[in-house]
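Lecture 7, part B: from sequences to assemblies.

Below are the input chains for today's worked example.
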Amino acid sequence: MSISIAFIGLGAMGYRMASHLPKSFEQVLVWNRNFAKAEQHASEYSTQAVDIETATQADIIFSCLPTSVEVEAIITQYPPKSGAIWVDCTSGVPESAVKMAKFLQEHGAYFLDAPVSGQTIGAEKGTLTVMIGGDTKAFEQAYSAIEPFGGLIKHVGDSGAGFAVKAVNNMLLAANLWATAEGFTTLKANGVDLNNALECINASSGKSAVTEMVLPQRILNREFPLTFALPLLAKDTGIAISLAQQAKLPTPLLSLTQNLIQTANLTSDAESDFSSAVKLYESWTNIKIE
Amino acid sequence: MSISIAFIGLGAMGYRMASHLPKSFEQVLVWNRNFAKAEQHASEYSTQAVDIETATQADIIFSCLPTSVEVEAIITQYPPKSGAIWVDCTSGVPESAVKMAKFLQEHGAYFLDAPVSGQTIGAEKGTLTVMIGGDTKAFEQAYSAIEPFGGLIKHVGDSGAGFAVKAVNNMLLAANLWATAEGFTTLKANGVDLNNALECINASSGKSAVTEMVLPQRILNREFPLTFALPLLAKDTGIAISLAQQAKLPTPLLSLTQNLIQTANLTSDAESDFSSAVKLYESWTNIKIE
Amino acid sequence: MSISIAFIGLGAMGYRMASHLPKSFEQVLVWNRNFAKAEQHASEYSTQAVDIETATQADIIFSCLPTSVEVEAIITQYPPKSGAIWVDCTSGVPESAVKMAKFLQEHGAYFLDAPVSGQTIGAEKGTLTVMIGGDTKAFEQAYSAIEPFGGLIKHVGDSGAGFAVKAVNNMLLAANLWATAEGFTTLKANGVDLNNALECINASSGKSAVTEMVLPQRILNREFPLTFALPLLAKDTGIAISLAQQAKLPTPLLSLTQNLIQTANLTSDAESDFSSAVKLYESWTNIKIE
Amino acid sequence: MSISIAFIGLGAMGYRMASHLPKSFEQVLVWNRNFAKAEQHASEYSTQAVDIETATQADIIFSCLPTSVEVEAIITQYPPKSGAIWVDCTSGVPESAVKMAKFLQEHGAYFLDAPVSGQTIGAEKGTLTVMIGGDTKAFEQAYSAIEPFGGLIKHVGDSGAGFAVKAVNNMLLAANLWATAEGFTTLKANGVDLNNALECINASSGKSAVTEMVLPQRILNREFPLTFALPLLAKDTGIAISLAQQAKLPTPLLSLTQNLIQTANLTSDAESDFSSAVKLYESWTNIKIE
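Predicted structure of the full complex, as structure tokens:
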């Protein structure tokens, strides 16, 4: 295809996501604040490292940044050309998606909030789940550009809906994580072997992505590999709570979860994997989940 | 084999579990308080409906009753013979398992706490997860009698450990259920289509047995089929909390979950499926999870 | 004195507060959306019912409205004259106080957030606690105008500080209210006479304004007189939670309180006294706190 | 009077409580595990230090021990004589009161659960609140013996009712303590001076024994004087939760409070005053409540 694609933000996720694009597109521009990383990407995957002014003039622009704040800063300073579609894969704020969609509409362009789930391994394999909010026509047009790194690619509603689903997904992850920590500590304190218990629960109704993946691959083995930082999970749970509060909904369990994750975040190193939230709980009980 | 097997308690689970035993054993005795059900089972599966005195004198006795209270009542009134193994599939209280194991030991018999997970469908297919606490030799001896209805059959620790794992499993189920209700209501209040959101979350890190099975098969379709009653889930969450409190563990998230489930239980009809706990939450928000 | 005073918003609180002003000031202007009430006030207390344009041109303008939204609407449409001091007795939003203070500063005027505590009885007696945020000089100048209805009049910090203290005060009221409901229900379920228990607790370390006043005067006697509406308490707890979240603070107990009060609010008639929040809890336990 | 009085347990409370008895009674026997303390009391207040066998044969026996466990141990080993009244001022377990009352009844004696509130200062001044459960006749007979150290002396119900009221009182203290910590930290994070805020709240509806006494006298001044140990408050909140659970009551706010206090307890030195529970919260927020 002759359309130009740009990818802005080559972090742990973005770097891998952008690596799939050259298979389907001739011209893939990449930009990163630490520009050396963009150049490394270019040499590794035959993309083109360009300046931000150039990147933002592509036909389809992906962004994958820490928060909506960074996305808004770039979009408002370097608005895309008319007809362009901006696909923001950040785990962002629904309100910001609405604002950016309106802002781009005034420039004749489109904004899709398109956060992803599947972690670095999914980014590497190109099997990410992509949950998308915004204009359906723009969604259809951008679909083939998302496909290279996407597994399930789903339009879930108007602007902000993608971010909302992602925030709630991560909130459920957080709730399952903390509940699992409390539950398995209770078992250990009662003399139950955790590996046997885990096998039973993973064959039962209490299982979740946390018991199937996070607990065995990150916690029980005490590795806590940094692939999704705890401050980002804390941010996402905060987004979910904001959504509930704007709708005047009581959410006692999610609010408590958010408070616990935020406490873990405040008392942890910023470079901690989200799974290390359980270490706060371990410090209370003096029992290691292993 | 010439050993005799008895099955006590032919409720929704027990009736189906006992149906598999005649494939492996010549003599399968069944008993049920409402005796007509035992006779029906006998005619349907070639088991023998017998009185409680006879049933409790089998070599291996299974029980599957509402709570540990009913189990203790039968065992203390009709203790099994020396050498017998009592396999209690009730979702019972760990403390009671310790007490019953000691009581049977005085009669030269064995008590295994062997609760099951997998619901009526798993009981029907004979693929239940069985988590077992108690004497390892008795476990090995009873193994082949459990196999007909078991998928994963796992020894998880001393007496009470099986009940503990089951209680924690059901507590995690409860936490996931309530968190999911809050999360999906938040999405609906923000204009997101729940079926699309569910598809994304089931392909993401927030998934659980609740999002994969309970939500689509019981809640979103508004069927709430009664296969596991809410009062029993409330009881199980109470058991898990007791385990935590005996160990002096703080469990803020599980405690809140137990309180919410108990509130749902107190305000629901006793014949409600566990999934209908979400109806309490719906009554607060005036938003149906559908 | 020859300075002119205006009072905007003659609700249950404002009507009584404004009634004290003519003792100290010759000219007291009053305005109310339902203007008949202003006229009634004028005839009852020798104030002057005027239109909003006139009221907002007084030297000192008091406002006492449901929320900051109504205050902002009036201030931005009818900004006061240079040198004027606007004393807002609404239980408002700290962020709004900062915004209004800045807006009035541009007009050479001052904004004090000056919420009150003491309910209608305190307004009637002129013994309200007034917690004030904003410019200290404006505070000193306005002091004598606040005195007629104030008991304790306290400057607590910059713009927004008054609203913040009020929001936290009401959050503590809410927490004490709900905790008291749970505690006294626990006692009643255990056969304790609530009046005797109350007497003991009011002579002990568990006492609060709730046990000393709200429980005996509103709940135990089943009167729930409407003097402070539940939706307003729900709003105030929301303001307190927003303050915590902006500061990235975990507040597990206050968050749960806010969720419970909001649940009570959603399931109650809008014309319910704040004390009737306990009726939600009573509906769960089927035990009346009486 | 010629009746003999004994006081068992001369801790921080008991030592002071027993000091008032000689004013009204000729013969006051005292016993303490660390016997030197009994001898010191005897020399200081003209009581008689006696062995436990002698003490338990008095007409009225007071006990003031850490928990019901110690009380039961002494009573069952040294049952009082027929007609005696045992007045247990421990903050004990309601179930234990029922058991001890039944046990003493078999010996023709009486057990009153009579926990006290008012701390060491109230014990010193003889103004303690005494909340009493058990036989009303025994209560009337024991009244004059309680009076020397009691302010409000109140019969609140059958055996266990006194302990229940005390447990709920201390639970409310705990809830107010933690809520106040969260609330005042929120104010400080928003730039409000805590002393001014405290003055306003103590003149408003959010006040409690915590804001009136604990916060200014123990926390804001950073003294945390050890007069009521945190492990005892944790124990009392546990008693209150047990009462709720036996009655199948949901108590979300009290459960969370108990979990937070227990977390503070697990992470604190055993010799910490109850007020130092807030230090756990301070460690989360990195903001000192001062």
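Note for the exam: The beta strands of chain D are 4-8, 27-31, 48-49, 60-63, 85-88, 110-113, 116-117, 128-133, 150-157. Keep this in mind when comparing with the next example.
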